[in-house]
Amino acid sequence: MTASIIAQGRYHCHQRTRVSxxxxxxxxxxxxxxxxxxxxxxxxxxxxxxxMGGRGYVRVAEAVERAEASARRALVLDDTLSAAHTSMGGxxxxxHQWRDAESALRNAIQLDPQNxxxxxWLALSLTCGFGARENAICEQTIAxxxxxxxxxxxxxxxxxxxxxxxxxxxxxxxEPAVDLNGDLDEGHAWxxxxxxxxxxxxxxxxxxxxxxxxxxxxxxxxxxxxxxxLAVLGDLRCARRxxxxxxxxxxxxxxxxxxxxxxxxxxxxxxxxxxxxxSVYWTPxxxxxxxxFDVMRDDRRFACVLxxxxxxWTPEWT
Length: 318
Known about the structure:
The protein is mainly alpha-helical. Helix content is 76%, strand content 0%.
């Protein structure tokens, strides 16, 4: 029975929405109450809290506190369990302790090379901590191949391909990721931005419409994404209108900045960036590598933005 509860928690954890993660925490908590000495349950609880913090669903300090307590409990119960070291790697990632994160995650992989989550967290740590994008995409490729039914594992690989300008490869990963979970926060937006780079306006429109139909709570961000895509496709008039609409609908500042940068309005983009905390896991990657910011990279004001990103994330490579 406990194993079944843990499996249900794992399923919800891999959906990566706020609601699914809250449900995962409920399942894992129930499992720890039923079997206090089950390290897998404590690992799941730790990972769920780490992801909640990394996605900005709870304060990072709270996520770290809860995740670390559960991860350490798992390690005490079984320090040979790969998942326990993965969980501790996630805690180090949240703390931006990059070498500790890499060490814990490589230890997890050594204990179990088939641990897809360890490869995924290692890809994140290599990217954000060391700027090691080639190594990161190798690790994420392994993660996606080990768990091809995880929308996050597959979608993250598409995101990395997008940042490298490999748009056909990105599309090949993002389409199945959206099919696996149409509620994934990033899914429809990721697919729309890749389709725009490929000149596929039909897929842009369909992706945004599908996202709006499923995630009304993400309306502002999806409208901002639509504005970016239309600007990339050359429809600046509609892009401006949608960017203004996204502002009124509460899109996160970085998504608005990406829209205005795509339109070519650096001043408005910088105004939005001034309000961005850069705490969510994908935001530093977008600042460093998203092609929509390329038109601004020679602007000394954007250099100040990158300095602020570095202060938040303290990477070892910048």
